[in-house]
Design brief:
This protein is mainly alpha-helical. It has helices at residues 15-18, 25-37, 48-55, 59-71, 123-145, 156-168, 175-178, 183-201, 211-228, 238-253; strands spanning 75-81, 87-96, 101-102. The protein has two domains: 15-102, Arc Repressor Mutant, subunit A; 123-253, no CATH class.
């Protein structure tokens, strides 16, 4: 590998990528590798074959990772073709989500210490989101295993009310059932259960709650989150957005 193609000493993975729950850990690592390979022209032109050999996965897997990063707005892929429509080169640019522009100078190899923040992501919001996600995971494990100390410190009455609510809404899944559910649906279940816990703690009216409404609203909020990526309306804390939307829906029914 010549000096032009040699990876930079540092890889850069900003908080927006590190804490994005929609990304697999391998995809976050790939993002960092792309920043390390971004050359003096401001883009990375490594092939899927190169990445596949680097991470010991298939070319198809790399293709899915790259497509996912682009779909979430973290990178931009350009295909350079000849006059005969033959693919000559693929260029991967790092995208600044704050204004949807290329960061052509931020991750170039001639920057030995590429620490420029550019306020790409509100770090305090990402840390806040990461903290709530940890709490959601811990509470979900407590609810499913029904053992250990409750991390949310619910009273006996609140726990009873929550369990009754989960049973009524048919959300009281067993560990065996969860083993055959997709990761995406488990993530949905985590958010919904934690939202129900918040409703119980805050004494919200829950008589009108329906399973279909909970899940449909979740999907609607997810679509909104994806559509707002890279805009001023970007949703950094999905749980907060979902919970507020749920409360508003319940208030309409009163």
């Amino acid at each position: 590998m010549n000096e032009i193609n040699k990876p930079a000493y540092y890889a850069v993975i900003p908080s927006g990528v590190r804490y994005c729950k929609e990304l697999k850990f391998a995809e976050r690592l790939l993002y960092g590798e792309i920043t390390a390979l971004t050359n003096r022209n401001g883009y990375c032109f490594a092939t899927n074959k190169y990445f596949a050999e680097l991470y010991n996965v298939t070319i198809e897997t790399i293709s899915r990772w790259v497509s996912h990063l682009q779909r979430l707005g973290f990178i931009k892929v350009e295909i350079i073709k000849s006059d005969k429509n033959e693919i000559l080169e693929r260029r991967i640019f790092i995208i600044d989500n704050s204004n949807n522009t290329f960061l052509s100078n931020t991750y170039c190899q001639n920057n030995q210490y590429p620490y420029r923040q550019n306020n790409q992501y509100p770090i305090d919001e990402k840390v806040k989101e990461n903290n709530i996600n940890i709490r959601i995971d811990r509470f979900f494990n407590f609810i499913i295993n029904k053992e250990g100390e409750d991390p949310e410190k619910l009273t006996k009455v609140q726990k009873m009310e929550l369990y009754e609510l989960l049973e009524k809404l048919e959300l009281n899944y067993t560990k065996e059932i969860l083993q055959i559910i997709t990761e995406e649906n488990i993530e949905k279940l985590k958010i919904v259960i934690y939202a129900l816990k918040e409703l119980v703690i805050n004494g919200k009216e829950i008589l009108t709650l329906k399973r279909e409404k909970l899940l449909t609203l979740y999907d609607k909020c997810k679509r909104k989150q994806e559509s707002y990526i890279g805009t001023e309306k970007e949703i950094n804390n999905f749980f907060e957005y979902y919970y507020i939307s749920l409360v508003k829906e319940l208030e309409k029914a009163i």
